[in-house]
């Protein structure tokens, strides 16, 4: 069955104290769109962070202040090169500048990552499920660079209502051979798919992925963090 | 506008000498599906490699033979742990076991990566465009692990008819601020999105991503390889 990825338009500017679930449902309603059972609502963390007040004053031309904010947000510094700092966040994610981002933050400001993006996803999901009466999953995303490959991709930093990893252990291929691939990072693939309609410059902060038919799950995006002991590249 | 991701079903087993473009078009026709201008056809390299004869005999219970094949395919070895070898391929991609994969290969066999996946994508695209008369892009995918994050995701290893990186340099956010994000790996996001309908165990080796409205481009997947000099994690 085909998958559909529907952009959520017209959400507008988000401010501290706003209710993201209500903003998204209102935007969908204005476009005559309703959610259905099994929809995955994908939201950029940017509006989640803003609604949660995770904004700091940060002048555009003050690299020292930027560095201080990054160091305050980071749990560990992995690498530095020029203005770029590769960090581990308190959630365990490895990304540039501890997620401190000035894009779409407004002049003289930067947006931080949510304190607990899994909890943010869970709150948005519960509110949307209660309002609509349908079963949903929610994925909160950020845009990360990768080692070895150029360009950025959206990944899941918060998840509710689904398992972020699809466990294929014991599954066989079309020849009956047990698969070498054991876990697919489906929440990251969902985040990447949603970014194809969201974009960075378009002001579309959310999308609905319809037709995935995931089972109900109660995983967390932090399940996607590879333990340092298993990681060959730290 | 919404994006649609359509699985290409019923392709069946692929053998050396088969024409992948024709197999995909036949499968689409049996499902009463036609391609339209701007469609991105995403194909797992597995069937491309098989059609190109990139198959080796490899017993399931012979780790030494497996290692020999991996070392022959790899341009460099980055890390080893147990049966896992992280390699640089001749194309420049960094992945496990130089892409040598026994899943869906058939008993006692392994599938290798195409010699030049960009050229493979280009041939498939030209054949499909000539047959259908519509303008297409083609992405050939593989399933890669990532440092720091658990689970595998599909990425682009061959591209034709599009730019794999969307250049946002000079683009402004909704506040008029020039974006910090400069390049999005759109071909990798397309590959990840397509994997949501393809899967590893389902025997669906291709998908059509419709509604992306990419400009025409002549990039290559090797554009996605980050030069070692820019990479902080080798």
CATH topology of the largest domain in chain A: 60s Ribosomal Protein L30, Chain: A
State the assembly state of the protein chains: homodimer
The CATH superfamily of the largest domain in chain A turns out to be: CofE-like
SS class of chain A: alpha+beta
Question: How much of the residues of chain A is beta strand, in percent?
Answer: 25-35%
| Number of β-strand runs of chain A | 12
Q: Give the end-to-end Cα distance of chain A, rounded to a whole number of Å.
A: 40 Å
Discrete helix count of chain A? 5
Mean pLDDT score of chain A: 92
State the CATH architecture of the largest domain in chain A. 2-Layer Sandwich
Sheet bearing the most strands of chain A, described? Answer: 5 strands, mixed
Question: In sequence order, what are the helices and strands of chain A, one letter per element?
Answer: EHEHEHEEEEHEEEEHE
Domain unit count of chain A: 2
Parts with pLDDT < 50 across at least 5 consecutive residues of chain A: none
Of all chain pairs, the largest interface belongs to: A-B, 73 and 73 residues
Q: Provide the helix percentage of chain A.
A: 10-25%
